[in-house]
Amino acid sequence: MASCRVCGHPNLPPVLDLGTQPLANSLLSGPTSDEIKVPLVLCRCEQCSTIQLSETVNPSLLFQHYVWVTGTSSTAKSYSETFCERLSSHLSDGPQFIIEIASNDGTFLRPFVRRGDRVIGVDPAQNIAKFASETGIPTLNEFFGLQVAKAIRSEHGLATAVFARNVIPHVADVHDVLEGLAYCLSADGVAAIEFHRADIILRELHYDSIYHEHVCYHSIHSLSHLLETYGLYPFDVELSPISGGSFVLYASKRGKSVTKRLNDALVLEIDSGIRDRNAWERFAKNAITHKGNAELIR
After folding, report:
1. 131 by DSSP, 3-state: which?
2. What is the Cα gyration radius of the chain?
3. How many domains does the chain have?
4. What confidence tens digit (pLDDT) does each residue in 67-108 have?
5. Residue 10 lies in a domain
6. How many CA atoms are closer than 13 Å to the CA of 232, on its beta-carbon side?
7. Residue 172 is part of a domain; what is its CATH number?
8. How many other CB atoms sit within 10 Å of the CB of residue 239?
9. Which of 9, 21, 104, 245 has the most crowded CB, counting CB atoms within 10 A?
């Protein structure tokens, strides 16, 4: 990357170099199969402080045939009901039109279907999109972006809710995705973005969460900056059990009253040191030390 994925600043000094690594979830077909390896280097933008990788792998290599299926996780299936209730509480009464970006097998859309809502999923994995469609969740086999959003809006109209769970940190061109999200969301609609908490990664030394699929490690601050660029204004936040600790950030085009919960989370995030280069340098040092201790134990 020549510049920050979030703000475009050209200064991205490295924080932690984990060497050249194979791609996560890219399982080999046999012992003699060629293995793709790519540098895995964590960097920090000197302007907006967003933590991100130095390299972007072609998304087709990572996502067009995917091995993770959401419905195989009992935690995800249980949480999908809670997620539906929370998002629905921000919507008007009556049937809604719901879009999920990177919908996988449709696990998180199924509770909305049971509510009587109209749904569409969008997912690039051919195998999983086919399964979702065959099991009752209409799913477009595409990488979501502005062009896909235009097609959905043209055929189905504006959505009252668009959500993206644990996907924005995976996206190489996050600006195209968020522009598309804003394009197909109604004026009084709600966007919900779930993302792995960078402050937990920092505090609990989750260096095992660093791999090529996760190109950015967002904070509420960095994601709010991105959303506001496209006229989406955060107003609330919830906790999620996914990935060892995540946030769900809610935003709308029409500015809603910001909750105390969101204001408190922003203050705690600053206090965590997440925007401080020295904190991430300590993280890198502790990661190397922890690796060394683990090797001694073995």
Report:
1. helix
2. 19
3. 1
4. 768 888 888 899 999 999 999 999 999 999 999 999 999 999
5. no
6. 29
7. 3.40.50.150
8. 12
9. 104
